[in-house]
């Protein structure tokens, strides 16, 4: 069944969009990521203009993240204090990102920037996560199934920063400047790439902040809700790139998928979750790189597709 998307100015199959929304929602609950890093490229592959895909996907992420947070909240896997600090930085970053998005769109370069951002960030993050998770899995097998415990309270440069706060659920006592800075950076990416930023946030929370994997997933989704909501509002009012019809279809599938994903996530180990997420990230990166290399005409077309 076909339905017309007014902002994207195209017709799509309803069941294909619902299926994509459900798949992304499943990943949201399973990995603690908004899923935009996969959905935005998929929408572009379907022919949706990159600017509309970015603006609309941020809206869908809000609903799937809310659904995922509720599931993790019931299990006590959300560090609210950490989430609020991340959200504060994310609000500032997403606001700056929307203004940057508008400027690049005016130059006619936003489509190219979107593709390059995906290739660079997904490639780096996916490769690092895959290497680390494989090493962790091998170490676990050598230790007879026991996972090596990450050392806590190591004194480095972060411990010399001011504004220290105690995050009891994450068992951390660190400066609030670090999570706020991470939130700022992820907020900018949320606006430019139409993502929740989980593919950056989750590794940063695990490896930089030293948070337990079980708490990372729920806390990541918590901050994603507010940051992407802010990005969606600004994209809609300033850039007019949010297609409501497309967003509603994605929402319907995403809410259901997130609940299912959260249940499956409980059954997997932290190392297994990180391995699967890394493979997903790298897969999308390679697909985008392949399209950019094999279809060079699009490199010239994106420069004229920034305005409607």
UniProtKB/TrEMBL annotation:
GO cellular component, one term: plasma membrane
Tree of life domain: Bacteria
Membrane topology category: Multi-pass membrane protein
Protein's UniProt keywords contain Membrane: yes
Transmembrane spans: 12-39, 83-104, 110-131, 172-200, 206-229, 241-261, 273-290
Keyword terms: Cell membrane, Membrane, Transmembrane, Transmembrane helix
Classification lineage: Bacteria, Pseudomonadati, Pseudomonadota, Alphaproteobacteria, Rhodospirillales
Family label: Belongs to the 4-toluene sulfonate uptake permease (TSUP) (TC 2.A.102) family.
Name used for this protein in its record: Probable membrane transporter protein
Coiled-coil region: none
Keyword Transmembrane helix among record annotations: yes
Compartments where located: Cell membrane; Membrane
């Amino acid at each position: 069944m076909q339905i017309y998307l007014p902002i994207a100015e195209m017709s799509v199959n309803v069941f294909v969009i619902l299926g994509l929304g459900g798949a992304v929602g499943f990943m949201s609950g399973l990995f603690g990521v908004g899923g935009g890093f996969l959905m935005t490229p998929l929408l572009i592959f379907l022919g949706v203009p990159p600017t509309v895909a970015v603006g609309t996907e941020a809206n869908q992420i809000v609903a799937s993240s809310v659904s995922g947070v509720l599931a993790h909240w019931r299990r006590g896997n959300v560090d609210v204090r950490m989430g609020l600090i991340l959200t504060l930085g994310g609000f500032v970053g997403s606001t700056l990102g929307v203004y940057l998005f508008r400027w690049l769109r005016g130059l006619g370069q936003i489509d190219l920037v979107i593709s390059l951002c995906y290739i660079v960030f997904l490639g780096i993050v996916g490769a690092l996560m895959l290497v680390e998770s494989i090493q962790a899995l091998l170490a676990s097998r050598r230790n007879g199934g026991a996972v090596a415990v990450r050392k806590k309270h190591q004194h480095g440069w972060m411990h010399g920063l001011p504004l220290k706060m105690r995050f009891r659920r994450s068992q951390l006592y660190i400066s609030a400047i670090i999570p706020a800075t991470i939130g700022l950076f992820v907020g900018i990416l949320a606006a430019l790439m139409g993502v929740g930023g989980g593919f950056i946030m989750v590794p940063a929370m695990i490896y930089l902040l030293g948070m337990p994997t079980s708490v990372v997933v729920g806390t990541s989704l918590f901050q994603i809700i507010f940051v992407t909501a802010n990005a969606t509002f600004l994209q809609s009012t300033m850039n007019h790139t949010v297609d409501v019809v497309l967003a509603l279809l994605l929402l319907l599938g995403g809410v259901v998928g997130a609940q299912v994903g959260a249940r499956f996530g409980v059954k997997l180990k932290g190392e297994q979750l990180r391995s699967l997420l890394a493979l997903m990230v790298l897969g999308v990166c390679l697909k985008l790189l392949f399209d950019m290399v094999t279809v060079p005409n699009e490199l010239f077309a994106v420069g004229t597709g920034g305005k409607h």
